[in-house]
Amino acid sequence: MAAVRSALTSWTTLLPLIAVVLLVITWGRDLGPVPVAIVALGLAGTVLAAVHHAEVVAHRVGEPFGSLVLAVAVTVIEVALIVTMMASGGDNAATLARDTVFAAVMITTNGIVGIALLVGARRYGETRFHPEGSGAALATVATLATLSLVLPTFTTSRPGPVFSGPQLTFAAIASLVLYATFVLTQTVRHRDFFLPVGTDGQAREEEHAEPPSTRATLVSLALLLVALVAVVGLAKVESPAIEAGVRAAGLPQSFVGVVIALLILAPETLAAVRAARRDRMQISLNLAYGSAIASIGLTIPVIALASVWLSGPLQLGLGPTHIVLLALTVVVSVLTVVPGRATRLQGGVHLVLLAGFLVLAMNP
């Protein structure tokens, strides 16, 4: 009874419920600085709670399903944020999806990977992972990013970095097919490629504490859904403040997408770092590349569908600077994952690439 009472009063249980109440109170209102700050804290805390409950569910189903659950949960939040903010219009509505998805790709492939490699190598000297699994994930990321974010810049059916209707339909279908194929590969056909590497260099099953009960898993699943609804709603409430803050700081409106991606991927980063500290670098890479794949593979189809009823153009094509950054990221990432082991140097290189992206995002 005491354990049940403790679970019911834990912050991961209370925060999603409090966030729903906060959403009801603030929805449709013009908020001052103090309420905006409270909503921001509630939003950040609820994202952490959502990821906690995703990890509980992940613990129950095991790896690599666990990384998949977390990546999909985070991506659902990201997609919902993009759609709700695009629906509200604004100066950057046409490019918000592109800015957010590209920021997510750069943060995951350089930020999460870089931090995890640095933490793991600092603790163990070098980190080890499966080049087969990580390489396949990276190839999927590169293909998705090129099809969805690079090609629109060079197509000629419509003026500007915009897909025509048939082209957008193809990109959406291709994204879903690639995502589904990757998930099948990761969880069924070649599951051992995505398990942590043992001391003998072979895949090893995760050594976990006793998994949660079915009841606890179902409770976490329900709270995860509540948290996702609350996050989407609070982000919609907070979006005017985010855009106003970006303008007040003198930053380009495209930086709103970077803020969204940083917010959503912060818990994912923490999970990857925790895995790296436990010498589970493959799980860190699963989280990073899996999030990038889900971010493109799920966001583009949803945005393509939403574009039917959303007003205004949908600009997906990247500019020359971002295309160069993406190409350099792919090349460096290939050199990182092919050997199956990495040191602090590779982590530092990826973090420098992330820093370059952030500097250029703030000062194009």
From TrEMBL:
<feature type="transmembrane region" description="Helical">
    <location>
        <begin position="287"/>
        <end position="310"/>
    </location>
</feature>
<feature type="transmembrane region" description="Helical">
    <location>
        <begin position="216"/>
        <end position="235"/>
    </location>
</feature>
<feature type="transmembrane region" description="Helical">
    <location>
        <begin position="255"/>
        <end position="275"/>
    </location>
</feature>
<feature type="transmembrane region" description="Helical">
    <location>
        <begin position="34"/>
        <end position="53"/>
    </location>
</feature>
<dbReference type="InterPro" id="IPR004837">
    <property type="entry name" value="NaCa_Exmemb"/>
</dbReference>
<dbReference type="Pfam" id="PF01699">
    <property type="entry name" value="Na_Ca_ex"/>
</dbReference>
<feature type="transmembrane region" description="Helical">
    <location>
        <begin position="7"/>
        <end position="28"/>
    </location>
</feature>
<feature type="transmembrane region" description="Helical">
    <location>
        <begin position="316"/>
        <end position="338"/>
    </location>
</feature>
<feature type="domain" description="Sodium/calcium exchanger membrane region">
    <location>
        <begin position="220"/>
        <end position="361"/>
    </location>
</feature>
<feature type="transmembrane region" description="Helical">
    <location>
        <begin position="65"/>
        <end position="88"/>
    </location>
</feature>
<feature type="transmembrane region" description="Helical">
    <location>
        <begin position="133"/>
        <end position="155"/>
    </location>
</feature>
<dbReference type="InterPro" id="IPR052946">
    <property type="entry name" value="Alkaline_pH_Ca-Antiporter"/>
</dbReference>
<feature type="domain" description="Sodium/calcium exchanger membrane region">
    <location>
        <begin position="38"/>
        <end position="187"/>
    </location>
</feature>
<protein>
    <submittedName>
        <fullName>Ionic transporter y4hA</fullName>
    </submittedName>
</protein>
<keyword id="KW-1133">Transmembrane helix</keyword>
<feature type="transmembrane region" description="Helical">
    <location>
        <begin position="100"/>
        <end position="121"/>
    </location>
</feature>
<keyword id="KW-0472">Membrane</keyword>
<feature type="transmembrane region" description="Helical">
    <location>
        <begin position="345"/>
        <end position="362"/>
    </location>
</feature>
<keyword id="KW-0812">Transmembrane</keyword>
<feature type="transmembrane region" description="Helical">
    <location>
        <begin position="167"/>
        <end position="185"/>
    </location>
</feature>
